[in-house]
Amino acid sequence: MRDSTRSLLNALMGAGAGVPTAPGFGLPGLTGVEQPRGPWDAVTSAHAPDLPGDTFSFVALEDGTLVVDDDVPDGSATPLADAVERELHRPYEAVAVRRDDEDGLWRIAAVDVLIAAAAPDDASERVDLARVGGEVTATVDGDEADPDRAPRGLLDLLAHLGGDAALTGERLDETTWVAQRWAL
Question: What global pTM score does this model have?
Answer without folding.
Answer: 0.78
